Amino acid sequence: xxxxxxxxxxxxxxxxxxxxxxxxxxxxxxxxxxxxxxxxxxxxxxxxxxxxxxxxxxxxxxxxxxxxxxxxxxxxxxxxxxxxxxxxxxxxxxxxxxxxxxxxxxxxxxxxxxxxxxxxxxxxxxxxxxxxxxxxxxxxxxxxxxxxxxxxxxxxxxxxxxxxxxxxxxxxxxxxxxxxxxxxxxxxxxxxxxxxxxxxxxxxxxxxxxxxxxxxxxxxxxxxxxxxxxxxxxxxxxxxxxxxxxxxxxxxxxxxxxxxxxxxxxxxxxxxxxxxxxxxxxxxxxxxxxxxxxxxxxxxxxxxxxxxxxxxxxxxxxxxxxxxxxxxxxxxxxxxxxxxxxxxxxxxxxxxxxxxxxxxxxxxxxxxxxxxxxxxxxxxxxxxxxxxxxxxxxxxxxxxxxxxxxxxxxxxxxxxxxxxxxxxxxxxxxxxxxxxxxxxxxxxxxxxxxxxxxxxxxxxxxxxxxxxxxxxxxxxxxxxxxxxxxxxxxxxxxxxxxxxxxxxxxxxxxxxxxxxxxxxxxxxxxxxxxxxxxxx
Length: 536
Hints:
The protein is an alpha+beta fold. About 40% of the residues lie in helices and about 15% in strands. It has helices at about 5-25, 35-60, 85-95, 100-115, 115-125, 130-140, 145-160, 165-180, 180-190, 215-235, 240-255, 310-315, 335, 365-375, 405-415, 450-460; strands at about 65-70, 70-75, 195-200, 205-210, 280-285, 290-295, 300-305, 315-320, 325, 330, 355, 360-365, 380-385, 430, 445-450, 465, 470-475, 480-485, 500-505. The strands form nine sheets. A three-stranded antiparallel sheet has the order 16-17-18, with no helix packed on it. Strands 1-2 form a two-stranded antiparallel ribbon. Strand 1 and strand 2 (about 70-75) form a beta hairpin. Helix 3 crosses helix 4 (about 100-115) and helix 4 (about 100-115) packs across helix 5 (about 115-125). The chain is elongated, with a radius of gyration of 33 Å. It starts with a helix and ends in a 29-residue tail after the last strand. InterPro entries: DUF222, HNH_nuc. This is DUF222 domain-containing protein. It holds the Pfam family DUF222.
């Protein structure tokens, strides 16, 4: 099959689809509701066929296995149905989707091609959606090739007309009939994969995912429902979801001692900033003649009524900040007239900010303030760039980065730097983007890659480039680029301006680490210090 011919046909199909989509967007208002839904249903068949073709193409790519042996790559070709560990990553880069979505597409094409030929034919014809085919695969997990083909032969003739809500249950029923022993064995194995995971959600919230045995889940849910009902009896403002969340948290933390560790960055101004220009409004309010003031020259108390008329008039004029409102200049409040500041000589203000906790998400400022007021603190220091507020870093001539450099890079990256990968950076390898010793061991040449994507990078198809601000670009031989962002930006160690701002970090550790040493004086041309990295 000619690669250029395939690309030309895909381009032609895409052009027709784009033209149709634009025509519908511009002139679709002329369709009545029934006609519009009928057109949408017909287009679903086109989507089904396209997803089937994509899955088949990905399955053919996934059968090639690449392994690093010494300094060379060895490739093996397997029958269709084999999925190389790098295949989801490769498809994720090519298709611009996450690795999880790419893995589902690869698995769909591989399993259908090898075990469900009749279901695959329905998908390619557009009669069955890819999501329905996924239900068939999930319900047949644990079955061997022969058992899957028997399920395929029994299910495929009825699948296109079957209620999508019944696909999973019907597939399981057929699987239990044709291979009851394999279904039972798989059920026994799945009980060993119980797990609990957390991931960031909206600001201030974290999502939990739990995979538990059914009996345990039933007991836990009964406990949550019972305690949530008691909470709603006490507080009638609680909704059902809120009361369940509170009950779940309380049950989870019962008889548990909690230790928290939070890292915060607090800017410290070392020089007085230029005062901001504030527009003012001049207002006259005559002073009471019987009011007294202290004469600045003599130090004696003087009655305002005894002063000259022009002096009394001068004392009656007052300057206020010009606060515009709907009805004209407003009157400043007491808070506006006297802002609370820490250190009037520097103009610095007290501020407690929220913080991003890796793997959990954003914690709001109110919660951070509560943590600071209830937990013991340990103060360390880090050197920041005064202009950008980003971290400085350290350098070394060795191949292996020191612990503090590893901590800085891990904090900067947050996750694996491969496009679409969300594995935490703490579990990743620290890889030289440009091979050592050509590339130095500095944060500007180090990136966290999980073991799988570390191997993928060594294969050389996608070439990474780490930019000074921490952004990482992956480029394939054709020049196409995918870009990943760091969790926190850092200053490049060799080209950054001299840092002029120090930031103390307030931490509340379970086991307080030793305080970091003060920064050494920089030598000419060297703007790097050995400091503890603080996330911002």
